[in-house]
Amino acid sequence: MKVIFCLLGVVTLVVSTPVNQEDLQKYYLQGSIPCPFKEAINYNVSSDDIKVYFRNKQHPDSSVPIDINQSSEVDALGFSPNKDTMFIVHGWHNGHDSPVCDVVSKAVLQNNDINVFLIDWNAIARNLYVVAYKAVPEVGKLLGTLIRNLVNNNKLDLNKAAIVGHSLGAHVAGLAGHELNGAIHHIVDHIYTIRNL
C-alpha cells in the first residue's frame, strides 16, 4: 500500500511540474527524431560500406566480393551484357548471405541463365533501424552509381536489368532507379519476385 501511495505521489509531482518550452525543444522530438540522438544517426555512407557479389548459372554460390569498378574483373567472372541482369538488395539486419539474397538468387539461377549482383550494405543495415533508414538515400545513390559504372564499363543494358529489393532494400532499389533517371527496366518488391519465380 505504501508503494502505491509513493508512486501516486511521484506521478502527481511529475504531472504538476510546469514544462519549459526550451526543454521540449532540447530533449524531445524535433521533426520525427529525438534531439539527443540526431548526432548518433548521421551515418556517413561511403562506397566501402557496400559490397557487391556476382553470381550466374555457372557460379550460383559465389560469395567473393568484387570491385564493380574493375570492368575486367566483372567480365572475368562471367558477366554478359547480352543476358538479363538482376540486382538483389537485402533489407534491415540482413546481408548478402541472408535468405533474402541467397535463396532468391539461387532460385532465379536454377531456372534462368542471367547475371545476378547481390548488393550487401550490411555495414549500414546492421545498425539501429533509424540509422539504416537515414542512410537509405545515400545507399540508393551509390547503387545507382555502381549500376551506371556497369553501363559505361561493361555495356550493361538497362532494358535488360531489374533491381529487386526487400524491406529497406526496396527503398534503396527505388532510389537507385531514381538515380538512373528511371532508365532501369523494372524495380520489384522481394515478395512479388518470390511469388513469380
UniProtKB/TrEMBL annotation:
Q: Name one Pfam family in it.
A: Lipase
Q: Which UniProt keywords apply?
A: Secreted, Signal
InterPro entries given for it?
AB_hydrolase_fold, Lipase, TAG_lipase
Q: Extract the signal peptide range.
A: 1-16
Name all Lipase domain ranges: 46-187
User: Which locations, inside or outside the cell, does it occupy?
Assistant: Secreted
Query: Superkingdom, according to UniProt?
Result: Eukaryota
Protein name listed in UniProt: Lipase domain-containing protein
**Gene source species:** Diabrotica balteata (Banded cucumber beetle)
